[in-house]
Amino acid sequence: MADSVALFTSIGLSEQKAKETLKNEALSSALKDAVVQAQKLLGSTNIDKGTGTLLYSMASRLRDTRRLAFLTEHIAKRKITTDLQLSAALDYVKSHPQDPMDQKAFETACGVGVVVTPEQIEDAVELIIRKHKQQLLAERYRFNMGILMGEARAALKWADGKMVKNEVDMQVLHHLGPKTEADLEKKPKAHNLLSLSFPHLIGEVKMEGKTLMEQLRGEALKFHKPGENYKTEGYVVTPNTMNLLKQHLEITGGQVRTRFPPEPNGILHIGHAKAINFNFGYAKANNGICFLRYDDTNPEKEEEKYFTAIKDMVEWLGYTPYAITHASDNFQCLYELAVELIRRGHAYICHQRGEELKGHNAPPSPWRDRPIEESLVLFERMKNGMFAEGEATLRMKMVMEDGKMDPVAYRIKYTPHHRSGDAWCIYPTYDYTHCLCDSIEHITHSLCTKEFQARRSSYFWLCNALDVYCPVQWEYGRLNLTYTVVSKRKIIKLVETGTVRDWDDPRLFTLTALRRRGFPPQAINNFCARVGVTVAQTTMEPHLLEACVREVLNDTAPRIMAVLEPLKVTITNLPTEVRIPDFPADETKGSHVVPFSKTIYIEQSDFREVMEKGYKRLTPDQSVGLRHAGYIISVQRVIKDGSGKVVELEVTCASSDSAEKPKAFIHWVSQPLKCEVRLYERLFLHKNPEDSAEVPGGFLSDINPNSLQVVESALVDRSVSKAKVFDKFQFERVGYFSVDPDSTADKMVFNRTVTLKEDPGKI
């Protein structure tokens, strides 16, 4: 180890960096070979730091080690002297994996021998500034100088970057002179508002002028084109790669193929909505197809209701799978591939118990070098049910990126499968199944969340070990929300303790719960588009999702009137009926008629017996208008019960044309339907209920006791009598509500989706 550390420090690495490098076996091996070769070519052990830095960068970024000697020679002989040239060289060898290498074309692509003089830099910058001179003089130092640098670097690809920047700065100073006080004033920030449009159910959201589809289309994400998998960083090229890619293109016709692969052991949540939008959206944006594939390899946890619910939620969000497939469709093929993996010496039967394999420091298997024929016989015995559960596993001979050794490929489970019954007693694991099912379905872009990045190398390794088509895995950041939990295990705890009713309790953030609460699918998709396709994990506040909900419901939820805490009002001089617009801002979108009888009901809070400063609604001394009715009511008599509570008002009404304009207009109902209304607040009191530092007692101790309020005697406009489950309305002055599945012919139940305005206390 000491010799290797000395070798690495001799090229300019710090001792700490040298020791870290040695922990990565593949990198340290490649770097040793490169340094030793460079020393031989130079005839000296003294390698300058610039050359050493390029050698280290090349060794750490190069995936096709067949090109190591070729690139090392170009660096040692100072044909490649800058990181820009090295990047071009790595791109070239990645996109030209065939032998022999065309050295002339390679050196042209890398700028070998190209010299850019100061005069050439000066002339090029002068031309670029002349092109933008008018705007530069008008905007002065507020002009985006990055445009000048970008065009200069494009025109002077192999020039020294510092020299180009110095020339740009000097010529700008020549034209504008030193910065003035006006130049130094801060530019006012533009408001970053999102403009929404809904041309399709999935809701294309404009973000800084870009819709969700535009975020995903073409080269917006810098993804590889179908068939150009080898151009991806980290992709492993084998002698058969190009032939396999050619066959892949013949099968797919160059079409983008993605998949959404949920495990059917729970209900989808808000985080899955991002995955659905990303997988289905990327395929849609690029004229491709997306499979809904159930990862049904664990029969102990899978139930039919989850299969149905997952499909329903995908379709509810507006997407139609190209095909619905199951990992279990491929059980026979996966088994045959496992047999081939053993034959090739890449897998073995192990008898270590599950508890021995936990963690990253598990002891090496004493059966790792077991003869191939022996493992083949034992694997057959596993398949035939001749071992007990946990007595034997099939393990793959590889080290994962997180350091975990020899992950399990097959384990024994004597549990009937929901589709294959008792046909199998061995089941493949995720690490084995996922990449091979992607390969079988000829997926082009295997999109998954960031925690699977540690499995990327095993993904590539397994496909290449079996010499089958290898897709490309791309990772993106998870979407999380505060004030909630989405773990299946924790939601089950909430259900078992009676904290929530079921997976679709409207206080949860499962997709079935959000649908029941009345969240429109367009709003959820719009929220995902606002979050964007990020590599970093995103944690959002619920009020941002609620804002998306309001924006959709404001345009789509008809207005009706409902009274949650009724106060009876008797009108002594009686009119007849009133026509109310469904959308007051656009009366062409329809209307409905409500009766206007002698008895109406208003909210208790809309009347006060004693006038208070600033109160604008009904009092014995202050009249109030009735929304949409065209009438103003005035109190004549206040009727109370034995306890002194106001139970009824007697009023007179006058046309708003003949009376003085009131300070306020209130909503009301007449001949209403009695209904139940459920008002929801956050389920948890703290932002991060799973954080032991924030909630030492655990998430179950953080339940908000006021998360659900049930109003059993609310009154609603009878025009909703024929509304169906999940129909949505705006209760005027109250909030947005959705019809709950608990509704019956005798009594309707409404869930409050969101309030009319955001509660500033929630931000």
TrEMBL record:
It catalyses: tRNA(Gln) + L-glutamine + ATP = L-glutaminyl-tRNA(Gln) + AMP + diphosphate. Keywords: Acetylation, Aminoacyl-tRNA synthetase, ATP-binding, Cytoplasm, Ligase, Nucleotide-binding, Phosphoprotein, Protein biosynthesis. The keyword DNA-binding does not apply. GO terms for biological process: glutaminyl-tRNA aminoacylation. Transmembrane segments: none annotated. The keyword Zinc-finger does not apply. It is an enzyme of class 6 (ligase). Its main location: cytoplasm. Residues 665-740 form the tRNA synthetases class I (E and Q) anti-codon binding domain. Glutamine--tRNA ligase. Plays a critical role in brain development. This is Glutamine--tRNA ligase. It comes from Astyanax mexicanus (Blind cave fish). The gene is qars1.
